[in-house]
Write a structure and sequence with these properties.
The protein has 75 residues and is mainly α. It is built from three helices and two strands.
Amino acid sequence: MTVKHPLVDLLVVGGGTAGIVGAKLATGFGVRTVLVEHARTGGDCLWTGCVPSKTLLSAAEHAATLRAPTGAPSE
């Protein structure tokens, strides 16, 4: 059986970084896309990995800059 007018062209399983980028890229090309995620979108990088780590490092650098007598970052 062939469906002539499917509701969806692409099903993306997993809302991590790759899934979100892939779904957005496909949508940009006019592909009817559905993204399915079991929990919260963003994946490990957003919630427990890269983003929180970079935020913590940035806050520490800012605090060090404010503590320095000249206001310049410490080495």
